[in-house]
């Protein structure tokens, strides 16, 4: 009896203690609040226990599925009174009580019911589905209490009553008119469905704040002690920003006539800033920002709209407009503003009364780091349409150019600001659709000249393999005021290399200016540099080792570029080297092999900016000993000096320099590209000059372009002279390269293909001329196009080897000759796919019909690894794992006769891409080609393809019956890809069953180590073709006939006109098989049972036999 009473007492105690267990706090979207034991930000649930003795949670269930209350079951875990047990909802399913506990499910940020269930099946506690914003939590205001609230500051593992809770999170106000461009004034209404809220708004760019209805005043200066011996000015000015409670519609008008505001505040340490403060009313848009407030509730998100009213409407500006709004004290306050010289410069001058003002590091705008990131908002307009509207972080960017009046800015997308990316394709030269970091660049040292030089230089060498920054000029409005031209550029950081090469933040090593470590460790670089210091590269073995540590071709192009453009703010500065932190992996995807590579950076000093001459010997400068601390100290020239000790690198350097001067740096290309950049901003440059006097004036801007033009025309001769002097070369030699027929093939010299796809090569390049060097061997390679093979060389070179090395001692000519493929090879195109502008742009495709076919239409059917493909533009997976058009032409496998005999140069060719990811949820991307071969043999499938950092290669299979896939008989079913287009030819001629087969199909799949990656990379294809040889019968077709057969081609029946009473027919396949026979009835023969193809129709009547070739579509 005592035992029973004791057991009963324990059960009563246990049940009573169980009543004291609560789901106390929940976070369903943890972006930055607290990291788990793997340092990842996972969702979480907090359990709180109010009992008086320890309680065992073993057997309790936790679930986000009402149908499965024991989705995750607690292990034996004794929770102590007053404990806050944090459970990570990570899906990692960890139940070892000695470590943090993880459930086997994750929480949805869209809201779902969370249930804690007792072992007996009854509900212990439950939270009904509710949407909780990112980094907010939802829970009990007092631990274990009934009332639940939202917490802007979560308290995982701690009591909830230490922070304020909010009864609700308000929805934002509604604007009656969305932001954009307008020709006439209008009234703007703000509204909210809750009559109890107060709508607070601003029109000065500041955050709407119900506590700032009276306004906030800040101080600034417009005069600073620039000259030695002067003291800080005692004169301050004041400005303010104010929030207003909405009560009636707002009048949105053209505000240009309003007084200038923040544009009249000094942004430099000048004693007299009047040279850049506008003396006229600058253009002004209207930025309206609004937020809903209510007692006890968390205020809504801020809604920001920009209204640009002018007679020109959306034609007011010719380029995209970026409207930035920020509380102005964050930029212009004397003590805290990051855009002004401020207190920091006055302090510096007080401490250094006799020194000249420094170039940098002495003003508020020189402040760096997270603590100086200011939160603002951006509205971005393209062609008058808003394409981006989000909160962001803003910092000042640059080195010495921070002192310029119109400053470069860094833009940060972060999850705590609402979005971790800027989701827009800013740059026409890139296909990426989102960026985490951007720069608004003031053109650096080129600030008062062309205002595009660095971007132009990057575009000049885009495609060489060097990392470059794309470019989009924009007009910036700051709090509605015209702020002028700033160039949008992607920022070099780990996000950049993750986007392009899939390198994680903890895997990247970056060495920046002065060889100082920027990101990661510099140990590997220091070891490499030490090797350069202590070892000559004359021995081949030493050079071979260096090639495992750095991409020497990449560094070669980097040195050549900076030398040619005469960059004299380098090599002791403006350097940028990077690598993936791993041991050398030879076959890794590009950028992932552990070798150092370079990125072009801050080339504003090039093209005569700092020297006003075009003949500076930058080659000697970049290899000099004993240089000054800046710009070319001896340590900064070591790498190139050592590399040039090796004969192999020296030859490569000389020839690649010649190649690039004959293509990338060809005067006509440089001048044309510069003009293209100038034309892009010419409609805006006068207003930019009036606002900032940068460039100085319009005439100077034109002169700055002329400087580039003169440099482009004069520099090559000087550069060749410098090369000859450096390497003891006697003279230049002129090379003339030609082909017997440009539709048969092309010539490659050293590193460049002489085709229109190569920068600087004309659309009809032959005969092509380039300048090379006396007694420096060049490599020539003849590359045949589809249907041709190389025959021989003629001119000053000879031989039948398609690739030869020739050492010129005088001007020379080389002509490559090609002949048709030998008999027995397929000669007839059966199918061809021409990817041109008829394909829709930015559109995920599921199929593509052949653009040329001899009979039935060929079809590419595409299957994506993502279920639900294709997606609309509103879906987060839009343009992922997709087949799309791509601008990437190549002459490889181009067949003019399958494209109306249009030559490659004028073919308007684009391309076709398959985008990451290539695998997901057990599915894969694949392409299936439906290729009936009826009537043909000697089948050959060919195409051009290249990898753009997505996969290692292709897997090719085929089917004879439409369903069973095999590689049997294929000698090259696995096709490794490179970064350059390759021609792939698959010969099916010897495989039984391929010829004359209506069900023949080819399938392309993909292989590689990271097929699930989603970095926006791709595989690009072009010029798919199927060739064959017609199958013929011995019986000739009779052309003189009393039988008339029509229509031909046909889709179902043929009609036969004849004058005899009775006629018999037999239908043969082209290989002689009898497919159908009988008597002709009602002058018709039905072909409905036959697949599409080419057939022979034999007709017999009154002893006469005739054969007709017929085509069924």
From TrEMBL:
Keyword Electron transport appears in the UniProt entry: no
Coiled coil ranges: none
Domain LTD: residue ranges: 15-135
Stretch forming the signal peptide: 1-18
Entries under InterPro entries matching the protein: Bacterial_rp_domain, Fn3_assoc_repeat, Lamin_tail_dom, Lamin_tail_dom_sf, Secre_tail, Spore_coat_CotH_CotH2/3/7
PROSITE patterns hit by this protein: LTD
Superkingdom field: Bacteria
Keyword NAD annotated: no
NCBIfam families: Por_Secre_tail
The protein's name: T9SS type A sorting domain-containing protein
């Amino acid at each position: 009896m005592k035992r029973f009473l004791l057991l009963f007492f324990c059960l009563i105690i246990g049940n009573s203690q169980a009543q004291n267990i609560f789901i106390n706090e929940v976070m369903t979207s943890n972006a930055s609040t607290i990291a788990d034991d793997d340092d990842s930000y996972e969702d979480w649930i907090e359990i709180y226990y109010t009992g008086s003795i320890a309680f065992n949670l073993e057997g309790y269930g936790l679930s986000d599925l009402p149908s499965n209350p024991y989705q995750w079951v607690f292990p034996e875990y004794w929770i102590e009174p007053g404990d806050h047990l944090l459970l990570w909802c990570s899906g990692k399913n960890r139940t070892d009580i000695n470590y943090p506990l993880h459930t086997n499910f994750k929480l949805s940020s869209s809201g779902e019911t969370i249930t804690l269930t007792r072992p007996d099946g009854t509900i212990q506690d439950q939270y009904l589905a509710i949407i909780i914003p990112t980094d907010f939590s939802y829970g009990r205001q007092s631990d274990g209490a009934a009332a639940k609230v939202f917490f802007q500051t979560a308290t995982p593992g701690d009591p909830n009553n230490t922070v304020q809770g909010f009864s609700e999170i308000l929805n934002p106000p509604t604007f009656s008119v969305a932001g954009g461009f307008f020709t006439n004034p209008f009234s703007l209404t703000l509204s909210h469905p809750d009559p109890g809220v107060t709508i607070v708004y601003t029109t000065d760019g500041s955050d709407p704040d119900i506590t700032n209805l009276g306004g906030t005043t800040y101080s600034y200066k417009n005069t600073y002690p620039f000259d030695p011996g002067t003291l800080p000015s005692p004169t301050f000015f004041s400005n303010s920003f104010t929030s207003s409670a909405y009560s009636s519609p707002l009048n949105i008008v053209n505000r240009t006539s309003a007084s200038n505001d923040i544009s009249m505040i000094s942004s430099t340490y000048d004693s007299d800033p009047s040279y850049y403060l506008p003396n006229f009313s600058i253009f002004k848009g209207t930025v309206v920002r609004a937020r809903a407030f209510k007692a006890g509730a968390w205020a809504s998100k801020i809604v920001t709209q920009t209204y640009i009213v002018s007679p020109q409407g959306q034609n007011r500006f010719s380029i995209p407009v970026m409207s930035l709004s920020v509380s102005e004290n964050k930029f212009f306050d004397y003590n805290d503003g990051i855009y002004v010289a401020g207190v920091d410069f006055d302090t510096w001058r007080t401490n250094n009364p006799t020194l000249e003002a420094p170039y940098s590091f002495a003003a508020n705008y020189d402040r760096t780091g997270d603590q100086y990131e200011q939160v603002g908002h951006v509205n971005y307009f393209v062609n008058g349409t808003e394409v981006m509207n989000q909160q962001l972080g803003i910092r000042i960017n640059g080195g010495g150019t921070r002192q310029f009046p119109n400053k470069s800015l860094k833009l940060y997308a972060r999850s705590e600001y609402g979005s971790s990316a800027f989701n827009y394709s800013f740059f026409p030269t890139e296909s990426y659709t989102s960026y985490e970091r951007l720069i608004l660049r003031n053109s650096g040292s080129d600030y008062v000249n062309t205002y595009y030089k660095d971007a132009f230089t990057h575009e000049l060498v885009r495609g060489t393999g060097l990392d470059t920054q794309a470019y989009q000029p924009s007009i910036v409005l700051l709090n509605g005021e015209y702020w002028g031209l700033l160039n949008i550029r992607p920022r070099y950081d780990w996000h950049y290399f993750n986007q392009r090469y899939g390198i994680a933040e903890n895997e990247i090593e970056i060495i920046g200016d002065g060889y100082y470590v920027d990101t990661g460790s510099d140990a590997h670089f220091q070891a490499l540099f030490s090797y350069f210091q202590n070892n000559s590269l004359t021995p081949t073995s030493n050079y071979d080792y260096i090639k495992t540590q750095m991409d020497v071709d990449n560094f070669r192009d980097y040195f050549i570029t900076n030398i040619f453009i005469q960059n004299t703010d380098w090599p002791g500065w403006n350097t940028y080297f990077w690598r993936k932190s791993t041991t050398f992996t030879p076959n890794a995807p590009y950028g992932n092999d552990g070798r150092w590579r370079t990125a072009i950076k801050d080339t504003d000093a090039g093209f005569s900016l700092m020297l006003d001459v075009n003949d500076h010997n930058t080659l000697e400068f970049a290899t000099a000993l004993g240089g000054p601390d800046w710009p070319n100290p001896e340590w900064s020239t070591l790498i190139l000096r050592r590399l040039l000790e090796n004969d192999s690198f020296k030859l490569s350097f000389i020839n690649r320099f010649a190649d690039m001067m004959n293509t990338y740096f060809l005067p006509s290309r440089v001048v044309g590209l510069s003009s293209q950049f100038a034309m892009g901003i010419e409609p805006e440059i006068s207003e930019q000059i009036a606002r900032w006097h940068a460039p100085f004036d319009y005439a100077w801007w034109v002169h700055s372009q002329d400087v580039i033009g003169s440099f482009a025309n004069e520099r090559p001769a000087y550069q060749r002279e410098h090369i000859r002097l450096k390497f003891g070369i006697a003279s230049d030699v002129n090379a003339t390269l030609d082909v017997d027929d440009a539709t048969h093939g092309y010539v490659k010299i050293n590193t460049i293909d002489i085709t229109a796809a190569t920068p600087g090569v004309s659309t009809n390049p032959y005969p092509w001329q380039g300048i090379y060097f006396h007694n420096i061997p060049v490599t020539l390679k003849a590359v045949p196009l589809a249907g041709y093979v190389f025959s021989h060389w003629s001119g000053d070179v000879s031989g039948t080897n398609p690739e030869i090395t020739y050492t010129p001692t005088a001007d020379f000519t080389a002509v490559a000759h090609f002949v048709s493929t030998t008999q027995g090879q397929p000669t007839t195109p059966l199918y061809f796919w021409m990817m041109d502008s008829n394909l829709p742009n930015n559109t995920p495709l599921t199929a593509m019909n052949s653009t040329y076919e001899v009979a039935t239409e060929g079809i590419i059917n595409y299957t994506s690894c993502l279920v639900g493909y294709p997606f609309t533009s509103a879906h987060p997976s839009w343009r992922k794992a997709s087949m799309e058009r791509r601008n990437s032409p190549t002459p490889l496998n181009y067949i003019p006769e399958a494209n109306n005999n249009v030559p490659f140069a004028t073919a308007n060719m684009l391309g076709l891409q398959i985008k990451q990811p290539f695998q997901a949820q057990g599915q894969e991307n694949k392409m299936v080609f439906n290729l009936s071969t009826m009537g043909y043999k000697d089948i050959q499938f060919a195409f051009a393809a290249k990898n753009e950092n997505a996969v290692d290669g292709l897997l090719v299979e085929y089917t004879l019956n439409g369903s069973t896939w095999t590689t049997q008989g294929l000698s090259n079913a696995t096709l490794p890809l490179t970064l350059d287009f390759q021609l792939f030819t698959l010969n099916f001629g010897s495989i039984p069953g391929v010829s004359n087969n209506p069900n023949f199909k080819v399938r392309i799949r993909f292989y590689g180590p990271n097929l699930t990656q989603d970095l926006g990379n791709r595989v690009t294809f072009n010029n798919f073709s199927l060739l064959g040889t017609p199958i013929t019968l011995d019986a000739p077709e009779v052309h003189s006939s009393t039988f008339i057969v029509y229509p031909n081609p046909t889709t179902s029946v043929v009609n036969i006109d004849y004058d005899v009473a009775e006629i018999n027919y037999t239908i043969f396949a082209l290989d002689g098989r009898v497919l159908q026979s009988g008597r002709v009835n009602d002058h018709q023969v039905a072909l409905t049972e036959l697949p599409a193809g080419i057939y022979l129709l034999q007709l017999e009547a009154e002893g006469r036999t005739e054969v007709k070739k017929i085509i069924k579509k």
